[in-house]
Amino acid sequence: MARRGVGITITQHILNQQRQNPEATGGFTTLLNELIVAAKVISREVNKAGLADILGATGRTNVQDEQVQKLDVFANQVIIERMQHVGQLCCMGSEENADLIEIPSQYPKGNYIIVFDPLDGSSNIDVNVSIGTIFGVYKKKSDETDIDMLLNDVLQPGVNQVAAGYFIYGSSTMMVYTTGNGIGAHGFTLYPSVGEFLLSHENIRIPEKGKTYSVNEGNYTYWDEKTVALVDYFKAKDKDSGRPYTSRYVGSLVADFHRNLLKGGIFMYPADSKDPNKTSGKLRLMVEANPLAMVVREAGGYASDGNGPILEIDPSELHQRTPLYIGSREDVQLAEEFISGRRG
Ligand code: P6P
Question: Are residues 241 and 131 part of one domain?
């Protein structure tokens, strides 16, 4: 029987990227490789969550005032512990931490910044729905080293990300990432028997136009009239434009995004009046919208806040929220026409 090789590992793929960049020092490769180790550890715990006693809430709430699940806490700690010693970071930002995370003094620091949502979709942990880790990497702009002075270096528009991607812990564990600059977005599947992420989806291209819309219609009464008109558009019958679209909504951003990335479609989390503190919608710009916006751009898609590109938003706060319309370019551009009022 012919022995099967393992194909291209993520490590090999990242090294190939590094070799194409003359200024590369290998620091970025080290950083990504340690993040991958963290994801493997999280994947192992997520996949046995149903068996272990780490299900259920901790009784605490996070900076987003959401019930914190034990796996959230675990995933956050694993990423912080793995990343803080690689010597490539000046600080970190996590969806679970109100403030920037300092690199302990015993470790060397570097010029990269990583922002992440350690376990997005955590409310789905107990019901065995796919969840994920989302990350974005930036380069420090200043010579600052003091944690209290680094926030300006972190609050960069998403277009400045030097890498972005996500891990999805589902029927299989996958990593999708891009280093931008038109090199595309690539998917890797974890082979537990090998313990490696192997290239499974090279140069992902999202269809220009989809047939699926993803939105929580339970928020219908909290939307403004432009949002109502947009969602009603996708539900209306019109053969020539392939409507009505199919509705698919898992309630886990990474799962909904990943399906639409591979098959086409639009994911929407509009602004709503449900919570006076979250009038811009529920999703976070830095740790959710920006990384996925970069992945979808590299796959030929688009991400908007309803008025313009997500990647061009100048952040003012670490945990600021944004409306999000992301996926197939034609569908998202149409959403932008409705929400900006250019189309009724
Ligand atoms: P809703 C999960 O909590 C999350 O942050 C995203 O993963 C998901 O897309 C969204 O919230 C779901 O929110 O209000 O529809 O339950």
Answer: no
**254 Cα: distance to centroid of ligand 1 (angstroms):** 10
Instruction: Read off the pLDDT of residues 118-155 as tens digits, 9 standing for 90 and up.
Output: 999 978 877 889 999 999 999 999 999 888 899 999 99
Rounded Cα gap, residues 282 and 252, in angstroms: 12
Ligand 1 centroid, distance to 295 Cα (angstroms): 19
DSSP state of 103: P
Last residue of a domain, which of 168, 203, 238?
Answer: 203
Q: Pocket around ligand 1: residues whose beta carbon is below 6 Å from it?
A: 120-121, 123, 216, 251-253, 282
- Over residues 56-99, the pLDDT tens digits come to 556 666 677 766 558 889 999 999 999 999 999 999 999 999 99
Which of 269, 278, 280, 322 gets mutated to test ligand 1 (max ligand atoms within 8 A of its CB)? 269
Are 14 and 137 part of one and the same domain? yes
Is the same domain home to 288 and 327?
yes
CA 157 to each of CA 286, 291, 309: distance values in angstroms, whole numbers, following the listed order: 9, 11, 10
Domain boundary residue, one of 203, 231, 253: 203
